[in-house]
Amino acid sequence: MNGGIKIKYRINRSCFIGCSEICNNKEDLNEIVKQYKKKYRDAKQICYAIISEGIEIYNDDKEPNGTAGAMILKELKKNNIQNILIIIVRYFGGIKLGKNNLKNTYAEIASKIIDSINSNIKNNNENNK
């Protein structure tokens, strides 16, 4: 884990941790996901998405189909982000959020991560002038 963007978010007692990682191929993806599963082994879900080498990959990790990884992927596509893995860890707080709230939560966290990535890129470009 290379220490990319990290965002914590709480809703209805569930805690979400959204992270970004540079990821250039499927081998990197598998290794990063393995590291997250080890680090956050007590989490309920570890959902992610990436666009790399022209391939779109996402995983809802037992969340209802299309509510987690698919929403992360949608944000990546909307912002034309490639080779950045967005991974969101969820600690379930005992209250079901419902499909719409799940979709909105995962999309919002992914969007905030992407905003932070874009802000960092902008700041780096301005500092290099």
Description:
By secondary structure, the protein is α+β, with helices and mostly antiparallel strands. It has a single domain, classed as 2-Layer Sandwich (Ribosomal Protein S5, domain 2), CATH 3.30.230. 41% of the residues lie in helices and 28% in strands. It has three helices and five strands, in the order E-E-H-E-E-H-E-H. It has helices at 26-39, 69-78, 99-127; strands at residues 6-11, 14-22, 45-52, 55-59, 84-91. It has a five-stranded antiparallel sheet with strand order 1-2-5-3-4, with helices on both faces. A hairpin with a 2-residue loop joins strand 1 (6-11) and strand 2 (14-22). Helix 2 packs parallel to helix 3. The protein is globular, with a radius of gyration of 14 Å. The termini are far apart. The mean pLDDT is 90.
Features:
5-stranded antiparallel beta sheet, 129 residues, 3 helices, Ribosomal Protein S5, domain 2
The ordered H/E elements are: EEHEEHEH
Radius of gyration: 14 Å
Query: Low-confidence stretches at least 5 residues in length (pLDDT < 50)?
Result: none
CATH class: Alpha Beta
Work out the number of β strands: 5
Task: Round the mean pLDDT to the nearest integer and report it.
Answer: 90
Largest sheet: 5 strands, antiparallel
Helicity, as a percent range: 40-55%
Distance between the termini: 30 Å
Structural class: alpha+beta
| CATH topology heading | Ribosomal Protein S5, domain 2
- Total number of domains: 1
List strands and helices in order, with pairings.
Elements: E1 6-11, E2 14-22, H1 26-39, E3 45-52, E4 55-59, H2 69-78, E5 84-91, H3 99-127
Helix pairs in contact: 2-3
